[in-house]
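Below is how a single chain appears once it has passed through the pipeline. First comes the sequence as given, then the structure the pipeline wrote out for it. We keep one example in the README because the format questions we get most often are answered faster by looking than by reading.
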Amino acid sequence: MDITLKEAARIAQCETAGDENFVLRQLCALDEPTEDGICYLTNLEKPEVLQNLKAGCVILPLEAKGQDLPFKGNILYAKNPEWAFILLLKYVDSLRVKYTPGIHPTAVVSPTANIGANVSIGAYSVVEEDAVIGENTVIYPQCYIGKNVKIGKNCLIYPQVVIREDCVLKDFVILQAGAKIGSDGFGFSFHEGRHQKIPQIGNVIIESDVEIQSNTCIDRAKISSTVIGANTKIDNLVQVGHNVKVGMSSIMCAQVGVAGTTDIGNGVVLAGQVGLAGHMKIGDRAQVGAQSGVMNSIPAGQTYFGYPAMPQKEAFRQLAILRKLPEMYKEIKEFKKQLSQTKKLSLLGKIKKLAGK
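Resulting structure:
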């Protein structure tokens, strides 16, 4: 990246301590430092990691100022060292050329599609009738954009993404490779001895600043819309069923499954492999631990865990008891043995046993 320490401090919103003209050429990890690189340490709980650190610069928390530390090289002081490093990552990422505006000769674009300024459409991608693609949006190779799809500005649609008819993406949406938006919801009615398909005539609306990772599926609604709220981030291999509503700034980690018509609030965190039954409400800021199975609604601000999911403290208490079951079983088995022996004794023998003789 070739920037001076002074320039790095400006970008990362830090205070400097060292040679402001020192040139930093790369970002590096604390455990893989380079002499012209910059890394960061989030806290000073283990200052010994700075011993013999051969990095060009390290970002430290503000409370490190004035402390006698084993690292004597260039330092940037930040209120939040991790965020300061992220700002540098954003700077480096902005320098990379990601695409060239224009439509590749092998792309198939309907003449009725509305393509904004500086849009890039990659090789073998298809854009169907009446689709709208906003300015500066990038559609990588081998993508399918269905009829009447609306895509906002500055979106990134990576290879082999499918966005089916009538779906809507607002601005600054990122869809990683293989994401599928607007597939039919899993709706069937058992009638006259057969599973009969229920038409899924709704759509999917993805609000601004949403990122959806690879091979995740967001099903279209039976009627109305499946909605993903602004700034929500969805990991790989997540399934979101039809008519689900997800609020703002929520997180769904890998392999989460959400059954249809579930209402997920703002700021909700669903850890890996969480399963949600349908027709329930998850309150704002609720958190659900990994591999939990949620069968009922969760109040706002609560942390749940387990199968079936329950308040985390209760779940942990039950787990602690479960760990003691083998020992408890041995004690019960021994007690039953003693009880059986006692039943066989005469009255005098029982009295003696009770007396400990």
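Residues 250 and 267 are 4 Å apart (CA to CA).

See the next section for the split statistics.
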